[in-house]
Amino acid sequence: MTGQTIPCFDLLGVKPDFLPTQPGLFRDFDQINFYRVDKEEFERDMALFRSSRYKFQYEEVVFDMSAHNLLLEQARVEVAAFKARQAAAHAEMQMLEKESMDRWMAEKAQNKLPADEISIMRQDPDILTLHAPLDANVWKVNVADDDVISSTQVVAILEAMKMEISVYFNGDNRDGMERQLKIAKVLVQPGDTVKAGDALMFLRDI
After folding, report:
1. What's the CATH code of the domain at 130?
2. Which domain covers residue 171, as residue numbers?
3. Which of 24, 50, 79, 139 reaches 20 to 30 Å from 122, CA-CA?
4. Is residue 45 one of the residues assigned to a domain?
5. Which residues are registered as beta bridge partners of 150?
6. In a domain, 131, yes or no
7. DSSP β-bridge partners for residue 86
8. Where is the Lipoyl-binding domain (predicted)?
9. Is 55 within a domain?
């Protein structure tokens, strides 16, 4: 179950009920109640909050420690049962995540080009290398081995600092003319981490 609430934090502390010295809304021993509203009421209240006109509803009460302790005791069995279910679900999720990671690592190892083959291709004078322009994660690879592309075609998309970087081979364009290239070998996969200057793929002129 998910939902939205009015924000309880104002960075500058200038909205009603907030202070510049204490931008968080809640104080010690506050008891918070959430209630359901329809979409129209929520959007109206959010507009009021953004324009510094929303007022939170407060009710002054005395914190009853004995009643609180009684509530904890009454909920003890229910809380313990919930924590047991939570621990079992967490263990199951960890197992599933490990299985998924193991499969992914096995696929990466299976598709990885041997180092000696990479060395041989680097020595080929007809091989062109497309390098990573910066440290980034590989988000998408848009081509496969033996694909024919133009020198301005986006062959991969990297992600760094929440930005997408389109990568294409445009080195040594002759008189501004596009070149036709063939993908000799793709060296990276989505999810890989690369450093600036790392080889992303080998290409050949055609």
Report:
1. 2.40.50.100
2. 115-205
3. 139
4. no
5. 180
6. yes
7. none
8. 137-167
9. no
What is the distance between the alpha carbons of residues 143 and 154, in angstroms, rounded to a whole number?
A: 9
Q: Which residues of the chain have pLDDT under 70?
A: 1, 111, 113, 171-177
- Distance (Å, whole) CA 130 – CA 184: 11
Q: What is d(CA 104, CA 110) in angstroms, rounded to the nearest whole number?
A: 10
Query: pTM of the full predicted structure?
Result: 0.50
The structure tokens listed for 111 are: 């598709």
Answer for the pair 30, 61: CB distance below 8 angstroms, yes or no. no
CA distances from 54 to 8, 12, 40, 112 (A): 12, 16, 15, 57
- Residue 108 in any domain: the answer is no
Query: Do residues 198 and 134 touch, judged by C-beta distance below 8 A?
Result: no
How far apart CA 104 and CA 77 sit, in angstroms, is 41
Q: What percent of the chain has pLDDT over 90?
A: 65
> Which DSSP symbol is given to 24?
B
Domains identified in the chain, total number: 1
